[in-house]
Design goal:
The chain has about 350 residues and is of the alpha+beta class. It has 4 domains: about 90 residues, OB fold (Dihydrolipoamide Acetyltransferase, E2P); about 70 residues, OB fold (Dihydrolipoamide Acetyltransferase, E2P); about 80 residues, Nucleic acid-binding proteins (OB fold (Dihydrolipoamide Acetyltransferase, E2P)), CATH 2.40.50.140; about 80 residues, Beta Barrel (OB fold (Dihydrolipoamide Acetyltransferase, E2P)), CATH 2.40.50. Helix content is about 20%, strand content about 40%. Strand 14 and strand 15 form a beta hairpin.
Amino acid sequence: MSENLSFAELLEKYDYKFNKGDLIKGIVVAYDSNSVLVDIGAKTTAILPNREVKADNKPIKDVLKQGEEYEFLILKEEDSEGHFMLSHKKVVAAYSWRELEKIDKETAVLEGEVLNIVKGGLMVDVMGIRGFVPSSHLRTKPSEDLVGKIIELKILSMDNATNNLILSNRKSVNEESKNTDLLADIQIGQVVEGEVVRLADFGAFIDIGGIDGLLPLSQMSWRWIDHPADLLKISEKIKTEVIGIDHDKKRVSLSLKSLQENPWEEAKDKIREGEKIKGVVTRLKPFGAFIEVLPGVEALLPQKEVLEYQNATGNLLEVSKEIETTVIRFTPDDRRISLSFSGKKTD
């Protein structure tokens, strides 16, 4: 009993160091309507919200059994009542990603359950990780009959950091040979036509005749784009230039902006240091504002100049606002322009 322990023994008993992001072990001690209570050796039981349990539609009590020990991730450190917040599903996901990385290196076949049909392909569950299978990598046309079924898959690309998993259901010898032949026919600098099959935060996947090429966000346009959906649509046919080929991983990198006129060439003839120039605010950052002074040409107005503008005008600088500034530095080869509101040279 704790009342029989000395102060020193009590201090030692509760001398623990748990931090956010730590992987720890804990014993399930109880359940309530919204969470699971877990003993992790702290002053009070830790809280595991039901939403942080990887249950796969099973009763939580069957997944995390009372009295059993499991691994958890600390999501939040102690609150005012001494409770830590935990996650179980993030630990499961971490182990799943580790297994997927091994499978990716071995180019082995794995199984996944079809969750639903989406534009451009299927969403599947593989070891608790949601993945995408483009239509161009399916043996058969996507249909509702596939939902709930287990299909064999191979990993095309994966990125744990962005939680992105792309898979293929086309893995017969003939199909693999066909894709290899297609890859052998593609050359850097070649212009190819393809269909947009998936949009992600970091870019778009383009089916270029049985091979999915990645069109990164940075290669879509000379102008600033927040998301690929601002420029592209699923099933849209576009032409791009091949800028990279990884034969080992069977991956192709594409560019759309390389087929467009380089606006910085025009800027060389139109922009001069010391001259006034008008532009529209495209982005606001802690270090300053980006101003589009010509279509596809952005210049930086440093933060101290942003404050100078706001103090002088009494107005906040906002995205889409037009502003007149002075060009202080212009290095077209580096594609950099520095602006000043006051007209004075910045440091």
